[in-house]
Design brief:
Mean pLDDT: 82
Distance between the termini: 40 Å
Order of helices and strands: HHHEEEEEEEEEEEEEEEEEEE
Number of strands: 19
CATH class: Mainly Beta
Strand order of the largest sheet: 2-3-4-5-6-7-8-9-10-13-14-15-16-17-18-19
Largest sheet: 16 strands, antiparallel, barrel
Number of domains: 1
CATH superfamily: Porin
Helix content: under 10%
Radius of gyration: 21 Å
CATH topology: Porin
Amino acid sequence: MKLYISVFTILFSLLFIGESVSLPRFALRENSSCIDCHVNPTGGIQRNKRGWSYSRTMMAMVSPRSDFEMSNKIGENIQFGFDVRGQYLLKMTDSTKKTDFQKMNASLYTTIDLSENISFIARYDFIQDIWEGYGVAHLFPGVFYIKGGTFSPNFGLRLDDHTAYTRGGDFGLLFSTGVKQGLIYNPLYVESGVEVGLNIFDQAFLTASVGNPSSQLFVKDPSFTANLKISPSISDEVGMFIGGSLGIYRDKQFSGPPRFQQILPQVKMYGGYFGFGYDKFTLMGEYDIADDYLAGDIKSTFLMLEASYTIFKGLDAVFRFDKFDPSTKLDEDALSRYIIGFEFSPYSFVEIRPQYRIQSEKPSVMNNSALIQFHFWY
């Protein structure tokens, strides 16, 4: 009982002592798109001048003094940045309560502008040993671009929380189920290939990419990813988008004992998403279906719903519901999770996220968790 009171006290204190990089939420709140704040047209990694300025002055309770010089530029053509995350975990079961600290990521990234419309972007994560490096050429600025190199494909809502089932799940970190708990499109997943993007009258954004997720040539067939996002213009106060994604992942890996090995069928992942934002409130959702993802002739579904409300500058209340059904053919095998938390930015480029996570499945067991995540970026 004392443990639950302590967790509640931490959350309550953070609420009254006074945003994340969840890109879709900010786009809704500001009625804008990813490219308005990021060098990468699909969002993430290096922030452009507007995105860096927004992080510095608009997100936190306290911003740097006006006489304190800050910049993310080295000369005229080079920008740099970093992203560091760690979290304190509390795991609770019927028989045990364990705590630990997890080092999540420590990424350094840079952008080199080769010309007004051509840039090279690179990221390296020292903890996860993951790197991205690609060039972006805006052949028709504001309308059409082409990207080539190693990058993360643009599928669904790109939440920065990889534990959402529509992303990578928690990889069995807290409570292992023996199977995958999320789609492959988590922050650690990259492909080497080509992506093209088309902006249609600032109302629709279409991307398509083909790439190889393996470092070994001719081992796996290329995968294909497409995403269409429609953002109707309603008013300056209302942000809205709807969209859909498709991923075809063709893997030549074999399954079963040696005498009965077969080539797995191609995996198809597809789904839709939406977002609505008004004033201090945002609501987002995504629903995906994966055919033959866990095994042949198995259909799996993934659901995410998130609502957030800005209590005051620098403090958001966030509620998220996740659901993962490994097989639609089976009853009572689905996993559900309710996440209640806050995102607190006391100072520019600093964020603290306390969360309490309630896990639900059948048969019912006690396997809830709590965490406090620390996030620093620039």
